Amino acid sequence: MPKVVANGIDIHYEEHGDSGDPAMLLIMGFGAQLTLWPDELVEALVSRGFRVIRYDNRDIGLSHKFDGVRSPGIVRMTLMSKLGLTPRVPYTLRDMAADAIGLLDALDIDRAHIVGASMGGMIAQHVAANYAERCLSFTQIFSTTGNPRLPQARKEALEALVTRPKSDAEEVLVEHGIMLARTIGSPGYPSPEERLRERTLSNLRRSFYPEGPTRHLSAIVADGDRSAMLRKITVPTLVLHGEDDPLVPCEGGRDTAACIPGAKLKTIPGWGHDLPLELVEILSGEITSHARNATN
């Protein structure tokens, strides 16, 4: 897989489709490798006439690792945030947005359709707010504004996300990954056991780096409430969210759409915090229709 130096660090990426087609940059979320974008979704976007680029965020997958750089404890960070203090963290979501722009620079792409999922949606918010001239459109998938008054993740979803596996044995890590996927996934579109196990094992063998998500979480907590920033976004925006998302409740998507002037919102019943194959046609259709309308 190719890599480039973007924003001063190595970023690994994949590119699909015709280089002459409009570029679409996919930004994945917390602790998630680029492979969490299903191949089927990427292929559907390509078939609709887009040059699709997905990449590993810093500190995950095959991109640059900030080995040994410590983050403040989550309890301390949460308390500081509630007191209105900004904790010092290894890097910020704005730094990660600069990674995305650095990747576009390295690929000689002036403007792109930006699509971000979960934490990737938060990063994409920074891209749309601070690099509007590089954005053809913005699509947010199951993400939120950081507004502390919004409903929080369900207890079982949050516990599944932050609980460490009992050991680093491959079989234990696979079972843990399956448990997490089941807990935060779509109740209306459950993944077949064989596919879930195969993907979990493949991702694990591609990269296992538990330090990265700790620093990702620090960046999320330190970012705070982005509502004021979102109100300044002028990029055409589509917000997609599952009505049954246990990790980032649908209110996060609704709040985002309410903050961004002119944003469109589509919610889907039965959809949780994953990208099930049953929704590939709907999601790819919504994303590409929005992208085309934004440039017509």
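The record above closes out task 2.4. Task 2.5 opens with a second protein, given below.
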Amino acid sequence: MLNIEKYGAVDIGSNAIRLLVVTVIEQEGKDTIFKKTSLVRVPIRLGAEVFLEGKISENSAARMMDAMVAFKLLMKTHGIKRFRACATSAMREASNGRALAEAIAEKSGLSINIIDGNDEAAIIASTDLKNLIQDDKVFLYVDVGGGSTELTLFAKGKSVASQSFKLGTVRLLEGLVDERVWGEMEDWIKLKTRDFKKISMIGSGGNINTIFKKSGKKMGKPLSYLYLSSYYELIKSLTFEERITELDMNPDRADVVIPATRIYLSAMKWSRAKNVFVPKIGLSDGIVRSLYNEKVAAEMEVNS
């Protein structure tokens, strides 16, 4: 017997806002299936103005309001049973972030959880990520966003260290990252990985997903440092327009992909990782898993 429900997750990032719809299929005696049904991405680059001006402009606030109202209607049409929205760096740092979240809740009925970097890392860790983390291997997980990069080191199947750095693609594009932040991240990675001989990296975020897709690699196969390095040289050699026309990138991806690739390559170099696995997971996937885990825990409590 199957129990089928649809879950919704909204990820309000510094580069874009996403609505992920997942069909959750529970089957007796078997693993629950999480099937991605729909993904809507709206490129409202909140970080560009927040990191420069300290607040979200009226124009961006209006676009965000429209997007959230539209997401509410889409979720109603899909018949969503459970939902959560989480906002990261840009909303967190905007002086009007909380006021805007309240206004959106009032108009759309969707409440927004403004989370910090550690919450973000913990939510993502509840995804299929744990299926990749073998007990006999060491992984550095790197999630690159528009406003920050979240790092988690996994050893013996468990998280042993986690840190968030204000090193994001939109910040780098706007020239808002002090060299000291690069130094702090380098020191952290080298310190946490120095006692391990062989380390693999896991990368998440829209940019590494785009690079992986264009590589033609099969899911589950990693990208090598050499491949990522040569790709970095390629995208740097092309103009913004050429990255759109020749590499078929979206305009809001064609600029941030360069700083993102630099972050991944730096993390690989400092951790001595030769490969990066790209499982195509992110905050929205983690939100769905968190909602499901909460539902299961509540049911167990009722039945106990």
